[in-house]
Amino acid sequence: MAEQLTRRVVVTGLGAVSSLGIGAHAFAASIRAARSGISPISGFDTTGFPHTNAGEVKDFDPRGLLDQLDPDDWGRSSLLAASAARLAVTDAAIDPGRLARSAAGSIMGTTSGESTVVQSLTEQWSRDGMKGLDPRLIGQLPASQIAIAVNHELGLTGDAQTIPTACSASNYALGYAYDLVRTGEADFMLAGGADSVNRYTHAGFYRLGALAESVCRPFDANRTGIITAEGGVALFLEPLETARARGARIYAEVLGYGLNCDADHAVAPNLDSVARCIRLAHRDAGVKPAEIDFISAHGTGTKANDVTEAGAIRQVFGRRPPPTISTKSMIGHAMGAASALSAIACGLAITHRFIPPTINHGVTDPECDLDCVPNTARAAELRVVQNNALAFGGNNAVLILGRYEGGETA
């Protein structure tokens, strides 16, 4: 076991189904070009809402992406996750049959689970009572279906776990999957998350006063909140020796992660706890703050989150932190998929040697005081990057990725 504990883990496949495109290459092109995936909501009736934009996946057709699942049998979040996983496996250029014969599984994060199914069932109950509920939809309801869908689509027989730690869930999933591969409990793992745009999440953030009118402006003095979004995302993890033996393209190496839960407040982040989580991640990865080349922040665009996160970053890094960006300015807040979408952005940034921008930026809030790479991507040689995820209930997760230095990456 001691030898297994030193096993290095790399990311060799990326799958993204997002408002910025489907597939890793489309996603990379969009973030590099500083595009916005925000548009008027079409997934539910927005009558009565003063704010009606979201980051929806407008061109999502699961029938064109999936080989095994019948879309009629699964909820939208499960289909987003399974589609992303299929894309990640294709991107990794590994034989799906090999996965089915191996110790391989999936760990997926979520905030609202099968939220569009909940929405439909709630409408049925409200209109027709319990007897009016569609049994087919009831079968799609459990949040556990999200990871189960991934395993069904790919024929995997290993773990199929859905982690519900809200907006940090997919970083939790990545850390768990990393541990399974690192310790030899799994040969291959898919990790990421999925959530769908829905009425009750949109309404909840509006009632909290955390919903932006039209765009998300992280770290900007004039920011007003989040933009709800959706997506499915999966990263394919495998041991370094396996990747090298099969000549795989390596996007990044997983160096380590940190998790903590302060349980200090239902919705407000705790500065000291976030700083501790960052330090835990650095210690686990064996890196120092000075070695971090850029940070993909949680960066929701709310007043409280951005100031608290910036303060925690300065507590760890001092007065001159590395460039700190927020992909949510482009994608919106994809809830349980958010931190894995940011992790994909980190892997692509390492591979293609650029720092993604924070768009919609005008004037930096003096209380944030970060180099947020405003509006335009920046060329950069990146060796070590940090991916932050902060969630309601104080569930913090920080992932550290690094450039694989043993040869060509991608």
Please explain how this structure is put together:
This protein has helices at residues 24-32, 76-92, 96-100, 115-128, 135-140, 145-154, 169-182, 199-207, 240-245, 271-285, 303-317, 328-331, 338-352; strands spanning 9-18, 21-22, 39-40, 53-54, 104-109, 160-163, 188-195, 231-239, 252-261, 294-296, 324-325, 354-355, 378-379, 384-391, 395-402. By secondary structure, it is an alpha/beta fold. Strand 1 (9-18) and strand 2 (21-22) form a beta hairpin. Helix 2 crosses helix 6 (145-154) and helix 7 (169-182) crosses helix 13. The radius of gyration is 20 Å and the shape is globular. The mean pLDDT is 95.
Give the arrangement of secondary structure elements.
Elements: E1 9-18, E2 21-22, H1 24-32, E3 39-40, E4 53-54, H2 76-92, H3 96-100, E5 104-109, H4 115-128, H5 135-140, H6 145-154, E6 160-163, H7 169-182, E7 188-195, H8 199-207, E8 231-239, H9 240-245, E9 252-261, H10 271-285, E10 294-296, H11 303-317, E11 324-325, H12 328-331, H13 338-352, E12 354-355, E13 378-379, E14 384-391, E15 395-402
Parallel strand pairs: 5-6, 5-7, 10-11, 10-14
Antiparallel strand pairs: 1-2, 1-8, 1-9, 3-4, 7-8, 9-15, 12-13, 14-15
